Amino acid sequence: MEVLIAGESWITHSIHIKGFDSFTTSTYEEGLQWLRAALEKAGHVVHFLPNHLVAREFPTTAKELAAYQVVMLSDCGSNNLLLHPDTFGKSMRTPNRLSAIRDYVAGGGSFLMIGGYMTFQGIDGTARYHGTAVEDALPIVMQATDDRMEIPQGMNPVARQPKHPILKGIKGEWPVFLGYNRFNARPEGDVLLTIGDDPFLVVWDYHKGRAAAFASDCGPHWGPPEYLNWKYHDLFWAQLVRWLAWQ
Predict the structure, then answer these.
(1) What is the DSSP secondary structure assignment for residue 32, as one 8-state letter?
(2) What is the CATH number of the domain that holds 91?
(3) Domain that holds residue 137
(4) In tens digits, what is the pLDDT along the chain, a chain of 247 residues?
(5) Inter-residue contact 81 to 123 (CB < 8 Å)
(6) Which of 10, 27, 85, 189 shows a CA-CA span of 20 to 30 A to 172?
């Protein structure tokens, strides 16, 4: 299958102060390697749009999104999708890509939102997906403010429906996570995993398509080595994508 993943990149700009003198350094990083490897191992073709390319290159219509069997957003704030350079820099009208995602799912597409500081509502509410068309397509209702739950001591998700096709063959205790985005499951949503008292993985059918919300990271920092090296890591992601695409 063709899978589009948007987000999962960042640039760190540091100031080094050495007494009277100072200088700056910048580094570019990506956090997709573990998820990408799992999907490619399962035979899928991964198309990756890092955050700095999303505003200009993410598809603008449901028809364009239909070229992909599954679309994912991970650590990609809503402004990246709402503020095309032609709109932000030239005051030109452009399509609403949050509405395009909803319409893509309603028409038979498959969509997954993965947690992080810039998905769901995110740090300081900056990701800002609450109340948007993307939220309409998801089986959850987001908080209106900062929705992060930081758990530095670690916490294990618990499987609520271990026989579901997404969780089939995954045995024993899940590895710890160090944080997640808190949201509420819709009554029609299917809660497959919980963490503490909160939903962790929720799925549903939305009109002709399917969508899922995974509350935590697909990489660091919320996804620690115990999770990234977990023996069922690749199986979980492969089965989740296959279920989303009705396979």
Answers:
(1) -
(2) 3.40.50.880
(3) 2-244
(4) 999 999 999 999 999 999 999 999 999 999 999 999 999 999 999 999 999 999 999 999 999 999 999 999 999 999 999 999 999 999 999 999 999 999 999 999 999 999 999 999 999 999 999 999 999 999 999 999 999 999 999 999 999 999 999 999 999 999 999 999 999 999 999 999 999 999 999 999 999 999 999 999 999 999 999 999 999 999 999 999 999 999 8
(5) no
(6) 189
105 with 88: CB under 8 angstroms?
Answer: no
Per the structure, the count of domains in the chain is: 1
Alpha carbon 192 to chain centroid, angstroms: 17
Name 71's Cβ contacts closer than 8 Å, sequence gap at least 6: 3, 4, 5, 6, 65, 101, 104, 109, 110, 111, 112
The DSSP code for 131 is: T
Helix or strand holding residue 151 (H, E): strand 148-155
Rounded CA separation 91/94 (Å): 9
- Tell me which long-range contacts 203-206 makes (C-beta under 8 A, separation of at least 24): 203/139, 203/166, 203/243, 203/244, 204/139, 206/105, 206/106, 206/137, 206/139
This prediction has a pTM of 0.96
CB 181 within 8 Å of CB 115: yes
